[in-house]
Write a structure and sequence with these properties.
Helix content: over 70%
Organism: Lysobacter defluvii IMMIB APB-9 = DSM 18482
Keywords: Membrane, Transmembrane, Transmembrane helix
InterPro entries: EamA_dom, EmrE-like
Number of helices: 11
Number of strands: 0
Number of domains: 1
Pfam families: EamA (PF00892)
Structural class: mainly alpha
Radius of gyration: 19 Å
Shape: globular
Protein name: Membrane protein
Distance between the termini: 22 Å
Length: about 290
């Protein structure tokens, strides 16, 4: 179970770094760019992706190209959401993206809808409604009104889209690790091209501070993936337990860090939504 804890810690640490980046005057696009360089390098050396699986005619290059565009874009939205809506609400919205993934599993992948999964879906939708509510006025609040609402909904839908695209890649027979390697490299090259254009226009300077911050972000981002993979390998007969513990752990840790480390304010509906999210994740993961 220590792999699950480490994975959750890495996930929440990513949110913390994104929260602190504006205070440290770090450039977010550069951080995201170097993040993918670090993630791609670590993926190559630690997971040894079977790239031969990419030579199959069924390899969905369109989906891999889409992921290379969507994932860095979503990373930038995630950073904005952490800054505007806070770590607590952003982490809950991200984890509840599994609701849309579940709907896609029912409608696109032919998965059977059990009573527990439908109950979890209903509770999860109620949690989404509660988490987007702006915290009560009075005292410091990270909420940003309509901006926060839009960002949280994009996070919710965006991570579900990534999950569905990854499932489509997996269905094609392409190894998941190989597909991630390609996406990491492609995302880095796309972001590099954008940063070179920004630098050429005099908008930013490519400096060592952003390089260091981006590499740290990449280590944490990849650590989340790596420890999650190792958790599944350590508990091969309990994938639902790993899934539930990981997601619930992120929600709980994110709430603790957001409230106690950054003083984020949560309203009564937000707190109810957190409880509903934990129950929904557990029901969906543990359903037969």
């Amino acid at each position: 179970m220590h792999f699950i804890l480490l994975s959750a810690l890495c996930s929440v640490s990513v949110a913390v770094l994104l929260k602190l980046a504006p205070r440290w005057r770090l450039d977010m696009p550069q951080l995201v760019m170097w993040n993918y360089l670090a993630a791609g390098t670590l993926c190559w050396f630690l997971l040894s992706p079977p790239l031969h699986s990419l030579t199959q005619p069924s390899t969905p290059w369109w989906a891999l190209a889409g992921l290379a565009l969507v994932m860095p874009s979503l990373f930038l939205v995630l950073a904005a959401s952490v800054r505007v809506a806070g770590i607590v609400r952003t982490d809950v919205a991200q984890r509840l993206s599994l609701l849309l993934s579940l709907v896609a599993a029912f409608t696109l992948f032919g998965e059977q809808a059990s009573t527990l999964k439908l109950l979890g879906l209903a509770l999860g939708l109620a949690a989404i409604a509660g988490i987007v509510v702006r915290p009560d006025r009075g005292g410091p609040s990270p909420a940003g009104g309509g901006n926060a609402l839009c960002l949280l909904l994009v996070i919710w839908a965006g991570f579900a889209l990534v999950d569905v695209m990854l499932k489509l890649v997996a269905q094609s027979g392409t190894a998941s690790i190989a597909s991630l390697q390609v996406v990491f490299v492609a995302a880095f090259l796309l972001m590099l091209g954008w940063q070179l254009v920004r630098h050429w226009r005099g908008q930013v300077e490519l400096d060592g501070r952003n390089l260091a911050g981006g590499l740290a972000l990449g280590v944490l981002n990849f650590g989340n993936i790596l420890f999650y993979v190792w958790a599944h390998q350590a508990l091969p007969d309990s994938p639902a337990v790993v899934f539930a513990a990981m997601n619930i752990g992120v929600v709980v840790l994110g709430t603790v860090v957001g409230v106690f480390a950054f003083g984020e304010k949560t309203g009564r509906w937000n707190r109810l939504a957190i409880v509903l999210a934990v129950v929904a994740i557990a029901l969906i993961a543990l359903a037969p």
